[in-house]
Design a protein that fits this description.
Length: 226
């Protein structure tokens, strides 16, 4: 007798399961509601206008080797000079923060966030203004998108400026301890011969087929507080 085979059911996230610390950590501009791009997940929705260039983060999770990760849906990979590639894994909601609930955009056109690696931490930055009632959606374009490439370079320039400012140098000098004079000097993140940090997206991005089917969903009916 022929039997129909079905894929295992995917557990659907509910608002009741969101940890209290995640709700407390939400910025005032956003709230959690069921996602419009993935019916099994919670999404992050704007309740107030969010300007272009707004930065959120860092993405929080357990630091693990890839071999230790059991579910690659909620993670990013970051290169650490002393550890190599490590995963920031937020599969367990108790170990993550609200950025765990930001879902992938179905296309570059729908994308309104992009990821940044700053000092070995992942941040999300708004690519364009986000209106109340829009879901926050991230996508990894690398530096192929000219606008994202410009924003990444702007962040790098800002970081270089902060490191070279008199205030930064003074703070660094005041933090020195006499014993440090006997230690080997540490090279800065941009030093020659040191591997350049690279941001590596997890394989949680959907295939084009699944993205297309997921994007056929409609946004939940929500009354936005003005």
């Amino acid at each position: 007798m022929n039997q129909n085979t079905t894929e295992p059911a995917v557990a659907t996230e509910t608002l009741a399961e969101v940890p209290e610390h995640v709700l407390r950590g939400l910025p005032e501009e956003v709230r959690l509601f069921p996602s419009a791009v993935d019916k099994t997940r919670i999404g992050v929705w704007a309740t107030k206008p969010i300007l272009k260039g707004k930065k959120f983060g860092p993405f929080v999770g357990d630091k693990k080797k890839r071999s230790q990760v059991k579910n690659n849906v909620y993670m990013w990979e970051v290169y650490y000079p002393n550890l190599g590639w490590m995963c920031i894994d937020a599969t367990d909601p108790e170990k993550g923060n609200w950025l765990r609930y930001v879902n992938w955009a179905c296309s570059g056109e729908e994308q309104n966030l992009f990821p940044l690696e700053i000092n070995r931490a992942i941040y999300y930055k708004t690519l364009k203004p986000i209106a109340p009632g829009e879901e926050l959606l991230v996508w990894y374009n690398g530096e192929d998108n000219p606008e994202i490439a410009a924003a990444i370079e702007e962040e790098r320039a800002s970081a270089r400026s902060k490191r070279s400012s008199p205030k930064s140098r003074k703070a660094t000098a005041s933090a020195w301890h006499p014993d440090a004079l006997h230690q080997r000097p540490r090279t800065s993140p941009g030093s020659v011969g040191r591997p350049k940090p690279r941001l590596q997206p997890s394989s949680r991005d959907h295939s084009s087929k699944s993205r297309h089917s997921a994007c056929s969903l409609t946004a939940p009916e929500v009354t936005w507080n003005q």
